[in-house]
UniProtKB/TrEMBL annotation:
The lineage of its organism: Bacteria, Pseudomonadati, Pseudomonadota, Gammaproteobacteria, Alteromonadales. This is AAA family ATPase. The keyword ATP-binding applies. GO terms for molecular function: ATP binding; ATP hydrolysis activity. It comes from Aliidiomarina taiwanensis. Pfam families: AAA_3, AAA_lid_2. Keywords: ATP-binding, Nucleotide-binding.
Length: 319
């Protein structure tokens, strides 16, 4: 079975496990395909954690969930050297970050020193304890959740930390019809238990799929359009005076790379062998949402980042 077929099966399985969140499911798979990390933000009870756990159940990988709290220490993530009396030596005990798929639940509840340890893992794919640096597994993805409602006892993620996330996805409440389906699924699982896919997606297939994603064709005109969208965040005055008033800091070249990878992954996931402007437009909010900084005036006026991104899409001519 080809990687595309197996990813299709995994997608179908996830849609059966997580009702009413097709965008969340799509972006979880895109993060795996683009070899990046995903930040999911939304109120409690919207299946953020469930979706990541369902993804882990469908992949041949080691999964670990870390509940972030204010008293968490860097060693709780990275691991630490433990003294062995029988040998008189210190032995390194790996922490949760040495798993393939790490769920960082409520990531904004951890203090800065913990964020610093996580930053090295996400950016460099390695962990440094004392004087020794340990490489992380080839398949390593951090899926982090964040609750926007409760701010007491939280630590806002610094820009450098946010920039390491490939995408920032917002999830919202389902409609009444979807809510009824969720209710029925919950009752069904209470009787029969969770369903498990018959065939788990192997890491070999994931790496093969990533190579295919990088080979998805992107026309030069689409590439120029992609770059223009990012440049518009840095030079908004060339497009719109109000846009220039809203944006204080634009996106870095890391955003360009992320947008390219995610657009290719989205096209591949939907069965296309080329990237269209629609792929770029669909993924732009998730790539830019955490990478642009609004001006004080824009925040005072209640301007949302999604509004700014919509204005960029409207102002930059598509191919």
């Amino acid at each position: 079975m080809s990687p595309a077929d197996q990813f299709g099966q995994l997608r179908t399985h996830l849609e059966g496990q997580v009702i009413g969140q097709p965008e969340l499911i799509e972006h979880l798979l895109i993060a795996i395909l683009a070899d990046g990390h995903l930040l999911v933000e939304g109120p409690p009870g919207l299946a953020k954690t469930r979706a990541v756990q369902a993804l882990a159940n469908g992949i041949e990988s080691d999964f670990h969930r870390v509940q972030f709290t204010p008293d968490l220490l860097p060693a709780d993530l990275t691991g630490t050297d433990i003294y062995r009396p029988e040998t008189g030596e210190f032995q390194f005990q790996p922490g949760p970050l040495f798993h393939n798929l790490v769920l960082a639940d409520e990531i904004n509840r951890a203090p800065a020193k913990v964020q610093s340890a996580l930053l090295e893992a996400m950016a460099e794919r390695q962990i440094t304890v004392g004087k020794t640096t340990y490489p992380l597994p080839p398949l390593f993805t951090v899926m982090a959740t964040q609750n926007p409602l409760e701010q007491e006892g939280t630590y806002p993620l610094p820009e450098a930390q946010l920039d390491r996330f490939l995408m920032h996805l917002n999830v919202d409440y389902p409609n009444a019809e979807t809510e009824q389906k969720i209710l029925r699924l919950n009752r069904q699982e209470s009787v029969a238990g969770d369903g498990v896919p018959l065939t788990k997606l192997s890491q070999e297939k994931i790496f093969q799929a990533r190579k295919e994603v990088l080979n998805v064709y992107m026309d030069e005109a689409v590439e120029t359009y992609l770059v223009a969208l990012i440049i518009a965040t840095r030079q908004p005055q060339h497009y719109d005076a109000e846009l220039a008033h809203w944006i204080q800091v634009g996106a870095s070249p890391r955003a360009t790379i992320a947008l390219d990878r995610c657009a290719r992954a989205r096209a591949w996931l939907n069965g296309n062998n080329f990237v269209s402007p629609t792929d770029v437009q669909a993924i732009l909010p998730q790539v830019l949402r955490h990478r642009i900084i609004l001006s004080y005036e824009a925040e005072a006026d209640g301007i949302q980042k999604d509004t700014v991104i919509e204005r960029i899409l409207a102002q930059v001519p598509a191919v």
